[in-house]
Fold this sequence. Notes:
By secondary structure, this protein is α/β, with parallel strands linked by helices. The protein folds into 2 domains: 4-113 and 220-283, FAD/NAD(P)-binding domain (3-Layer(bba) Sandwich), CATH 3.50.50.60; 128-217, 3-Layer(bba) Sandwich (FAD/NAD(P)-binding domain), CATH 3.50.50.60. Helices cover 23% and strands 30% of the residues. It contains 6 helices and 17 strands. β2, α2 (58-70) and β3 (74-78) form a beta-alpha-beta unit. 39% of the residues are buried. Bound molecules: flavin-adenine dinucleotide (FAD).
Amino acid sequence: MFDYDIVVVGGGPAGISAAINLAAKGKSAAICSNNYAESALYKAKRVDNYPGLPGISGAQLLDGMARQVQSFDVKTIRSQVLSVAEIGDGFYISAGSEVFSVKAVILATGVVQTAFYPGETQYLGRGVSYCATCDGMLYRGRKTAVIGLRNDAVEEANQLLEIGCEVVLIMPNDPPEGIKPGVEFLRGRKFAFSGDEVLRTLTVDDENIPVDGVFIVRASVAPDLLMPELSVKDGYIVVNEKMETNIAGVFAAGDCTGRPYQISKASGQGQVAAFSAASYIERK
Ligand SMILES: Cc1cc2nc3c(=O)[nH]c(=O)nc-3n(C[C@H](O)[C@H](O)[C@H](O)COP(=O)(O)OP(=O)(O)OC[C@H]3O[C@@H](n4cnc5c(N)ncnc54)[C@H](O)[C@@H]3O)c2cc1C
């Protein structure tokens, strides 16, 4: 028994289009995504080449898409997906502290920052984490840092404080609203990790900060970190014309599959991925 037929990872134009088309085909679908209002497209002042909606802003377009998907029978889960693992005839999707079982997955994660900070992968699981909900308790009473590349990193920092960690939130710009008293704030852009068998030091620009744990809150997770078996070339998920990846049951659409980075292309690929995923689960 699966939680959903298909989960779409990412709620931009590709993911929304995929989810709408899955629902139209009668599949049980969920979108698991970061808040779309934090995406780069949301900040676009004017989009002139999306057919039928000249001059629309990115925010208007995404708000409209979010309303449209809500009118279908699609569950929206506001959470970052951290891993997708194969389980015999389906997949486990781990998002925050929740895990869903599904028959198929559509990855629509947008352009992903693929460059890691120096030392990041070396200390992954040994001081570096991407999820306060999952790993925060390990650092209770200890010194943690949150590198916030999205505004909702504030929630991760506040959560660590509530767990009983000492927390410094580090972001490239001014502090967003909602930081709880007790969370220290620091501005920083360049990061590096060092230590011995475990992480000991976070270097922020030129300052060394002793830490036990660092939580990195990025806009997205690199595809090969989400699913190490996935075929990725130059940072893009390799797909065929049906939006199938090298893994049966895993499909991809939108900017995460490569250029051009365009809304029409993303939503078109989302639809193709939905049709392919729907017929995949019907054949099973
Ligand atoms: C300023 C700007 C202006 C633009 N103007 C135009 C234009 O005029 N015309 C045009 O056609 N295109 C334009 N684009 C490009 C367009 O925005 C993209 O091509 C389009 O948004 C791609 O859609 P997508 O669904 O593939 O990815 P995105 O829109 O990037 O959506 C991906 C979503 O998935 C979320 N996500 C990623 N990883 C995870 C994860 N692991 N778990 C949960 N959620 C995750 C992301 O946070 C994001 O919300 C513009 C882009 C920008 C930045």
